[in-house]
Amino acid sequence: MAGEFAEVEAELLARGFTRMVFDLSRIDELLDALGSPQRGYPAIHLTGTNGKTSTARMIDSLLRAHGLHTGRYTSPHLETVRERICLDGEPVEEERFVAAYREVAPLAELLDARNPETLTFFDMTTALAFAAFADAPVDVAVVEVGLGGAEDSTNVLHAGVCVLTPIGLDHTEWLGDTVADIAHAKAGIIHKGATVVTAAQPEPAARAVLERCAEVGATIAREGGEFGVLRRAVAVGGQVLALQGLGGEYDEVFLPLHGAHQAQNAAVALAAAEAFFGAGAGPGGGAPRQLRPELVRAGFSGVSAPGRLERVRTAPTILLDAAHNAHGMAATVAALEEEFAFRRLVVVLAMLGDKDVNAVLELLEPVADALVVTGNSAARAMPAARLAEAAVEILGEERVRVEPALPDAIEAAVELAEAGVDAGMGGVGVLITGSLFTVADARRLLVR
User: Fold this and answer.
1) Looking at the structure, do residues 289 and 318 belong to the same domain, yes or no?
2) Which of the listed residues 267, 282, 301 is the one where a domain comes to its end?
3) Which residues constitute the domain of residue 425?
4) Boundary residue ending a domain (301, 318, 346)
5) Which of 25, 233, 242 minimizes the C-alpha distance to 119?
6) Mean of pLDDT over the chain
7) How far is it, in rounded angstroms, from Cα 312 to Cα 292?
8) The predicted structure's pLDDT at residue 202
9) Cα gap 372→367, rounded to integer Å
10) What is the pLDDT of residues 84-141, one digit of tens each?
11) In terms of domains, do 412 and 358 share one?
12) Alpha carbon distance 152, 74 (integer Å)
């Protein structure tokens, strides 16, 4: 089966891993030919700039804690394409993945033959996910947008619950140059009658979301209004939260993830789960309906988020974090300063060429005692030499080292961390960051 799965993966990759064609008619046609599997279960649909995958994993865990069979579709993946399609919290097995592909591929080839553009890698994995979820079957699907919203392949769902994590500037070459433009694109996942759960947004994004809700008659719940984080305290291995949900307060919630941004994601995930279950305002203005607090605690305690301030080594501590834009890096830096307080921190950085590198470097400058710039396996990776030029301008030549190969960069970073005058006292760390591709490459080297 391993050989057959490798063949299937190669056929998918041949469609262009990063190729994008914004045209819903082709995925619509493919799903129609498959019998519209996405209509066989309710769905929770997520978009936003940062935090989508973590929030999707939290929602999934909450739903499973309440006894539901779940399907989860997220992207991109860290190690195997199977991670994108999860059943009851686990990546689909190779045999099931291959079976779904063998069902979808012949129909896809027929459509390819009569269209000027073939279906993309993402189109295909989306169809595979929806078919696998119908075949399982699942009670609910938790589906993350690939890029944007309105024209994303997942926007055939017309989900009953839509979730918007924080929106900022990213993918401007496809979504627009302003936060308002990007928010309009992302709000396209909101359809008639949906319940919308949104994180706190900058004013232009909030306005765009409200306009879309008014246009289609959707109900909206906003962080800071209907729900939010009441209190949070750093704890060993994560944090303890008190959350205001749509149905009431949930306290003593342990979340095994770091950072205020993950607490925010937790509040959004809880509100989304409550909306799905119908918790919130009671009938006729009566007492609000609340989820069982012990199940909410169980759901959050079981959450994991690989590649999100993930500790993979100790002595020195090595953390992996997939922050790839200014908004994400700001959250990562805040969590580092609050929860780790390293005496000496060395950052290994590899980014994609289309990202705002200077904004990320400005955020790293106050916390990085040294920076090792390198590359990753992405076709769009920024050359290490070019990244080094930008880094020297911001951090100074004495703090920047260039190691084009990631294994060499990690080895150099460990040496630099341990060379600190206080290394013997502990409190030294290495952060590997800048892109999900960087984290994926590092995990292959560091995680057994």
Assistant:
1) no
2) 301
3) 310-446
4) 301
5) 25
6) 92
7) 34
8) 93
9) 14
10) 999 999 999 999 999 999 999 999 999 999 888 899 999 999 999 999 999 999 999 9
11) yes
12) 13
